[in-house]
Design brief:
This protein is mostly helical. The chain contains 13 helices and no strands. Helices cover 69% and strands 0% of the residues.
Length: 288
């Protein structure tokens, strides 16, 4: 984005169509940058629903430019006027705008995830309930995930998905996990622990992928690279509660021209096995 923003001049003059269009353009560019940074969160939905980043960016900021009964754009101007500390410079104004748009984009991402994925919606609504699960479900290393999924499926009204952040803290609470809380902030500690668990589990899954399929010539080097990228995507999604049951979609993102028929015949059993192995490796890292 160019340096000549003039946000302080634009906000008081939104009655002018030229000023309004210019501010919308700036907000749109900010929203687009935020979406590109968060692309992993939305790329599956964009592919499935045939959306574009442009569409999502525009939808994210649209509510900021709804006029009231007097034709005033009070949503964005009120946010500007109430910002603390008060905005005095162009740098202050740009910082305000970035923060405001970032929040709107994150809210819209959450909205479209809820709308398109009932599992995600229920995960977001039920993390508190996860904390109430019986402690005995967490004590068996081998059956950790199967015990949790079976209990959630059979004894609750929630979808069979596990909020990974909540799982980490539940295990810490029960003194099962060996990871120590550092002197850093709680947020930094959470990120470190989750990433540690995921990274170790992914590396162990990669090792098995190489030993079982690459070394024995069952997959080519290029196919193994595609599976590695797919496993990384699945691991990232596990952080947010669960893997999309359509495993074909994970692989097809990285495999140009892959048909469902070809996937079922050649790759389904492999990816299903690796998916289960990844979950077991995560359980091993949490419990060992």
């Amino acid at each position: 984005m160019e340096k000549d923003y003039r946000i302080l001049q634009l906000l008081p003059s939104l009655d002018s169509q030229q000023s309004l269009n210019r501010l919308i353009e700036i907000c749109y560019k900010v929203a687009l940058n935020v979406l590109r940074f968060n692309y992993k969160k939305v790329h599956n939905i964009i592919l499935r629903d045939e959306l574009s980043l442009d569409d999502v960016a525009i939808d994210s900021i649209a509510s900021l430019f709804l006029s009231d009964e007097n034709g005033k754009f009070t949503t964005i101007t009120s946010a500007f006027n109430s910002w603390q500390p008060p905005i005095k410079t162009e740098d202050d104004a740009l910082y305000f705008l970035n923060k405001l748009i970032q929040k709107r984009v994150e809210q819209h991402i959450s909205f479209i995830l809820r709308e398109s994925d009932p599992i995600f919606s229920k995960i977001m609504d039920s993390i508190d309930e996860f904390e109430k699960l019986p402690p005995e479900l967490f004590t068996d290393k081998i059956k950790l995930f199967s015990n949790l999924f079976n209990y959630i499926s059979n004894d609750t009204d929630y979808s069979s998905a596990i909020p990974f952040n909540a799982l980490i803290y539940k295990l810490k609470e029960l003194n099962i996990a060996l990871y120590k809380v550092s002197e850093s902030t709680e947020e930094q500690s959470e990120t470190f622990e989750i990433n540690t668990v995921i990274n170790l589990a992914v590396e162990n899954t990669f090792k098995k992928l190489n030993e079982t399929y690459l070394t024995k010539g069952k997959l080519s080097e290029e196919e193994v690279k595609i599976f590695r990228r797919t496993i990384k995507d699945m691991a990232e999604d596990l952080k947010d509660g669960g893997v999309n049951p359509g495993l074909y979609k994970y692989l097809s993102v990285h495999f140009d021209g892959l048909t469902e028929e070809c996937y079922k015949q050649k790759y389904h059993n492999i990816l299903e096995y690796l998916s289960k192995l990844l979950k077991q490796n995560i359980a091993d890292q949490l419990m060992e």
